[in-house]
Structures are given as C-alpha cells and as structure tokens.
Write a structure and sequence with these properties.
By secondary structure, the chain is of the alpha/beta class. It is built from ten helices and six strands.
C-alpha cells in the first residue's frame, strides 16, 4: 500500500513511540497516552539514534503508527532524524512535539515529511487528538503553527509550474486539509464519497510530489498554486 494512503484501521490500537530527552516531559507524555485506551506507547527514547536503531530491528508489523519527535535532541536533531526514520519506517506518521515555533523549523519539518507539528504547550487532549488525527491520515497542527501555514497559503505566490494544474475540487480539498480535516470529515463537508476524497488527495500528493497534508500545503504555496487573496 502507498505510504500516503495508509491509515490505522478504526478497530486497531494506534502504536506510538516517543523521542524526547527530558525525563520530566517524557513522563507527562507517558501519562497522557496511558490515559487513552486507543493508543499504546510501545517505546520511549532519549535520542534519535537510539530510536532509529530500534526501528531498524523491528518487523514491519511491530513498528509504530505514530512517532512523537522532539527537535532539540542530543546527537542528531529531530529535523535530521525525520528522513532517517521515514527511510526505515515509511508508513509511520511523525508528529514534531517541540517548544520551537520558529518558522524555519516548521517549514523544514513539513518539507521533510512530518505529518504534524505541535508545541509542548499543547494540552493532553490536543496531543491525543493529534495522534489520532495523523493515524487516520490527517495532519495535526498547533493553532499558532496552523496560522503560519495559512499565511503561507495566502502569501505572495512564487512562479507556478506550468505542468501543475489543480482542479477546483482539488484546491477545495487542499484548503480543508489545511484546516486539519481528515478524509471522512472532508467527504461529509463536501457531500461526496470517502473513496472520491481519497482519490482526490492521492492525485494532489502526486501532483505536488509530497507525502502528507502539511507538505502539500507548503508545496502548493511555494509553487504559487494558491492565489494571493490578501487584497481580495
């Protein structure tokens, strides 16, 4: 199955791992996840190197569905780790969980394949909801991060690739993805079938050459797909 389309079945427990070097915050996340029966924390690591080594020894069926990843880690950074993790576990969904709201960190994480970006100020519910959202194929963005992503979408466009032409429906779905909606919610919002939404999203990702919703939004902006509607 294509990594872009793979989601966790509704009746399956979402397996997650945490890569975080601060023991006190690790404990907070452990307690948060332990409180939700739909999520199982199967590993906790203090460095990305340790996590990558462990992932490399796991069979595909044993690997996590979702990975919570800090950026400021000893050894290789979280940004560097994203590509290494996805090379080993291509179906995993990575949520960056960090104190950094720096625009460069957000862009780098999304462009490298992160499916979500949450700040450590997020509530327990926001973290749990974020895990479930990316496991279902959506994108999880902190409110502040989402505003920045939307600014990118609305900002002055760069030169559009003449080969890149999105249909009105694809653009509509791209906007809904930017709001954090998953396929089922988009289908309900637009009054079309789930399968149709999945097809539109797959075509979107293929056209934009990306792997997830946040990356699609960023790439669409950089290619000038969105019109500059600030003055509209």
């Amino acid at each position: 199955m294509d990594r872009l389309a793979e989601v966790v079945p509704l009746n399956e427990i979402t397996k997650a791992i945490l890569i975080e070097d601060h023991p006190s915050y690790r404990r907070v996340i452990e307690l948060t996840i332990d409180g939700d029966p739909a999520i199982e924390l199967i590993g906790v690591f203090g460095t990305a190197e340790m996590a990558v080594q462990r992932l490399g020894r796991l069979d595909a069926v044993e690997r996590p569905h979702v990975i919570l990843l800090d950026l400021n880690l000893p050894g290789i950074s979280g940004i560097e780790a994203i590509g290494k993790i996805l090379a080993i576990a291509p179906h995993a969904k990575i949520i960056v969980l960090t104190q950094s709201s720096a625009k460069k960190d957000i862009q780098d994480a999304i462009q490298r394949g992160a499916a979500g970006y949450l700040l450590k100020s997020a509530t327990a519910k926001e973290i749990v909801d974020g895990i479930k959202t990316v496991a279902a194929g959506g994108g999880a963005l902190d409110g502040e991060v989402a505003r920045y992503v939307m600014e990118m979408v609305k900002g002055p466009p760069t030169k559009t690739d003449p080969k890149l032409v999105l249909s009105p429906r694809e653009r509509e779905i791209l906007v809904l993805l930017s709001k954090g909606m998953v396929k089922k919610e988009i289908a309900s919002e637009l009054g079309i079938g789930y399968g149709s939404v999945a097809t539109y999203i797959r075509r979107l990702y293929e056209k934009l050459n990306v792997q997830n919703a946040p990356a699609a939004i960023d790439m669409a902006h950089r290619l000038g797909v969105f019109p500059d509607d600030r003055h509209g």
